[in-house]
Amino acid sequence: MRSAVPRADRAATVTARPAVVAVVGPTATGKTRLAVALAERLDGELVNGDSRQAIAELRVGVAKPEGLELRGIPCHGLDWRHLGEPFTAHDFVIRAEAALQGVAERGRVPILVGGTGLYLRALLRGYDFGGVPPREDRGAAADGPPVEALAAELERLAPARAIRTDLRNSRRVVRALELARAGADAGRLRHPWPAVWLGRALSAAALRQRIERRSEWLVGPALLAEVATLLASGVAPGVLADIAIGYREAIDWRDGRCGREEAVARVAQRTWRYARRQRTWFRREPQVQWVGDDGADEAAIADEASRVVARGPVAVPQEG
């Protein structure tokens, strides 16, 4: 199936925001395979929507798509940042908007693919980052709730402010939360992208099985080699251990603090916890249209997804 939008018409609408297909959802659900299949059917190119896959130096540990997996389909945004560089949702939006527009200017369909919910929401819903200038940190409490709990509260109270905040930096999260609780203006939503959001429907049991298989594949010689290369290049072990699930376990296995079986089990457990949070996040997004089921084959899922794309986006109330 080709795009429902003729190439000439798509090229003519480049001055406006082009229509986007967004393949979203938890890790290990097959987002890249579905996005590639759609790109082949719709004459599209992929734009990465995963915060870790955007790091240039990482490949194996973040399951970066490449080579045969992409089947010749371009994928933009796999090297937007370097290890150790600050990279917020605002930074992602700036780069992703340019990439999406570039795909449309070539007369092709932009297909965003990833599972970093905050980044995807910031981009597709069109958060306006210009309404509030950056503020300096003014200190943070040394004790109190973990940064994850504070970040969750910030996302609930002021999603636009959360998008501008490094949610791993406790000082910045605390300061942003103080402003949100005080009712400081966090900007408005403007200029959303017209998008069809697609998610791969899987039961919790099927998703967990996929995660276990993926963890078994991940923890192996290729990951150890990547870890060795990164450490030899000067990356601190603590920095690498915290950057993505799998690196800490590989370092521990490499240094004899655990065996491979334990490393695999730890990766699977941490990935499952992360996938559950992603699952909850995307289930709350009313515009996501879920395709497939546990028993569906990849071709059938791609055909179903193509029909959903042809119908267009789900109409949801616009945030203000």
Largest sheet, in brief, is: 6 strands, parallel
Mean pLDDT: 85
* Strand count: 6
Order of helices and strands: HEHEEHEHHHHEHHHHHEH
Strand content: 5-15%
How is the secondary structure organized here?
Elements: H1 7-12, E1 20-24, H2 31-42, E2 44-48, E3 75-76, H3 89-105, E4 109-114, H4 117-124, H5 147-157, H6 159-163, H7 170-181, E5 195-200, H8 204-218, H9 221-232, H10 237-243, H11 247-254, H12 260-283, E6 288-291, H13 298-311
Briefly summarize what is shown.
The protein has 320 residues and is an alpha/beta fold. It has helices at 7-12, 31-42, 89-105, 117-124, 147-157, 159-163, 170-181, 204-218, 221-232, 237-243, 247-254, 260-283, 298-311, and strands spanning 20-24, 44-48, 75-76, 109-114, 195-200, 288-291. The model is unreliable at 1-15, 130-143 and 184-188 (pLDDT under 50).
Task: Write up this protein.
The chain is of the alpha/beta class and 320 residues long. The chain has 13 helices and 6 strands. It has helices spanning 7-12, 31-42, 89-105, 117-124, 147-157, 159-163, 170-181, 204-218, 221-232, 237-243, 247-254, 260-283, 298-311, and strands at 20-24, 44-48, 75-76, 109-114, 195-200, 288-291. A 6-stranded parallel beta sheet has the order 3-2-4-1-5-6, sandwiched between helices. The protein is globular, with a radius of gyration of 20 Å.
Based on the model shown, name its key terms.
6-stranded parallel sheet; 13 helices; alpha/beta
